[in-house]
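RESIDUES AND SHAPES:
===
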Amino acid sequence: MRGLLRNQAALLLAVGGLYLLATVLAGTFLNVYLWKSRQNFTMIGWFTVAQQIAVGLSFWLGGKWVKEHNKMNALRLGIAVSGFFYLLVLWLRGDAVHYIWPLGLILGLSIGFYWLAFNIVFFEITEAGNRDFFNGWMGLLGSLTGIVGPWVSGVLISHWQGERGYRIVFILSLCIYGVAAVLSFGLEKRPRGGTYLWLEPWRELSRKESPWRPAAAALMFQGVREGVFSFLIGLLVYIAAREESKLGQFALITSAVSLISYYAAGKWFKPGTRFKGMLAGSLLLVAFILPLLWKVNYTTLLIMGIGTSLCIPLYMLPMTSTSFDLMGVSEESAAKRVELVVLRELSLMTGRLIGLFMFIAVLSVNQSPQAVTLLMLLLGTAPLGGWLVLRRLLKQGGGA
């Protein structure tokens, strides 16, 4: 049985790796593609808002399908809709900026359905003792795809300048999504989980002693930073360098560093080190933003990117593993794993939307480099808030 679970985990990692590769190939340059048509930070911000709303809704509404029916079909639908999104972008070309909301909603639906199913299957085929190990492998795959994907995209776009390069990259991503979808049929159908409880996320948070209250708050803090940094860093690198190849180079370097750090974290990180590890990671994430206060250029952005890649596992592994461990503390919580994954994602979505609304509000008034940098520093302190609210759970999961 354990051998079968390991084989399924390896196959899930393979599907996840291909999905990540297709996503970073096209996704790294998606916001640049939109920016070149209309140079407006708030437009990109609203595009991301639309994505996050759709992600949250697809998690909540799709939870019933995933729990009561075939969760593998939800995973495949997420991959298929991702491909459909890039077909639309290819068809719309430069007019894509006029359809920011529908495009953002479609992309968000694809992300939501895929990651909802992926997270549930991931929980079912791992245990508390090996979850940090598999999280480390997912981070490793993310780093590997982050090395290969953006660099290849940057070379292709630079070689075939203009629209043609982007079209080649988007078509290549479509093909890889197709391979991931085919490979997913090797994943065994998972057992159904009973009746879906629509309001369980809110009921869980209403319980005064629920460990999910601090966990949800920590996830919101994670989302505050994540919602903006997920697109802003790449956009700033392109604006500073004015070359897609430079953005590909940036992603290659930072992902190579991340590969090493996730490998080390996956090998040596244990539940007992989460408390100190997350604190150190949170402080370092803030520290590596400080070079941008001096000047925002390719060099300072690269310093920040390398530093972030080095320390991000210290922050992310405790965050991810702690929330998944809470799903398995009892038979009752394990039976509600779908609803708890939904709760986890809704918490992240709420934080991301808070960060994005702050970003849009500030940049609607002032788009100067100083305003952008100070806003990044403010949002960058959010992980410290996550550690503060989660520190008791981290101590319970392992000594300080």
Observations:
- The chain has a mean pLDDT of 89.
- The CA atoms of residues 18 and 179 lie 8 Å apart.
- The domain at 2-184+196-397 is CATH 1.20.1250.20 (Growth Hormone; Chain: A;).
- The two ends are 35 Å apart (CA to CA).
